[in-house]
Write a sequence for this structure.
């Protein structure tokens, strides 16, 4: 990725004439422009230069792939995500000591996550925020009725997911949102805007496992009516095995190993099939 370590590795690979791949995870130009007055086109130009020097750019969704293609990014490759369905699962015994229904947000508490669009909604029950970040103190002060649980992970995080009724994803700038899959695997329907990320994860299942609507309040209320079982079944489609397979295929294609790569992929797929 385009951080300090990524830039150093990119420089080393170019200097030694080694092929490398990159991955695009974050709409960094949009994040940056939300904080400082830097035009998005300037940041995209720099990112395009960074990523196009490699043998391939891995992206998580079709929507993001189309967007980057229009912006001049080359050699784009799909690389989806998976979810730990053993950890994130329905837990009938999970409870939170607060009025229901419970609307949950999980993620970095920062301006680009658009959390205030969620906290400002007139909703029944309780609003819960899990995560830390630079906007935490100010949001706590402005929304004292919301429940801020701080950063959680592992079993503690999984328990909160399972105890919630709707997962609210107010971000308009995320490229995927792995938390969407974690919520769905926990049997929790999603409410979000119809933007990159939610559109790619939920897609044609809008109204079945989640509700995508420009009226986020309406999405939250309608999501209460959806089936937790349908949400869980949907999330089970996303495995880490398939994620790993796509990654290895992309690396082989980027290095242009030709017939050797094709033979290797065939043998590896047979091996994976035998493990199922």
């Amino acid at each position: 990725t385009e951080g300090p370590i990524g830039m150093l590795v990119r420089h080393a690979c170019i200097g030694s004439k080694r092929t490398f791949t990159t991955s695009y995870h974050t709409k960094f130009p949009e994040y940056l422009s939300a904080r400082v007055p830097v035009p998005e086109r300037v940041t995209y130009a720099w990112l395009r230069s960074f990523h196009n020097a490699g043998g391939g750019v891995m992206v998580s969704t079709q929507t993001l792939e189309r967007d980057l293609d229009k912006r001049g990014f080359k050699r784009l490759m799909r690389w989806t995500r998976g979810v730990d369905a053993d950890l994130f699962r329905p837990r009938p015994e999970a409870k939170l000591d607060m009025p229901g229904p419970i609307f949950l947000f999980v993620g970095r508490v920062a301006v680009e996550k658009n959390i205030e669009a969620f906290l400002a909604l007139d909703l029944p029950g309780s609003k819960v925020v899990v995560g830390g970040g630079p906007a935490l103190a100010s949001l706590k002060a402005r929304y004292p009725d919301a429940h801020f649980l701080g950063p959680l992970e592992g079993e503690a995080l999984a328990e909160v997911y399972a105890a919630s009724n709707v997962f609210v994803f107010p971000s308009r700038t995320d490229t995927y949102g792995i938390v969407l899959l974690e919520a769905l695997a926990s049997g929790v329907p999603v409410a979000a805007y119809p933007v990159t990320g939610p559109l790619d994860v939920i897609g044609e299942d809008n109204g079945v496992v989640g509700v995508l609507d420009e009226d986020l309040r309406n999405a939250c209320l309608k999501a209460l009516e959806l089936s937790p079982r349908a949400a869980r079944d949907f999330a089970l489609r996303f495995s880490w095995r398939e994620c790993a397979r796509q990654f290895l295929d992309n690396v082989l294609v980027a290095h242009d190993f030709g017939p050797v790569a094709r033979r290797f992929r065939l043998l590896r797929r047979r091996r994976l099939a035998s493990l199922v």
Q: What stands out?
A: The chain has three domains: 1-79, 102-235, 239-276. The mean pLDDT is 90.
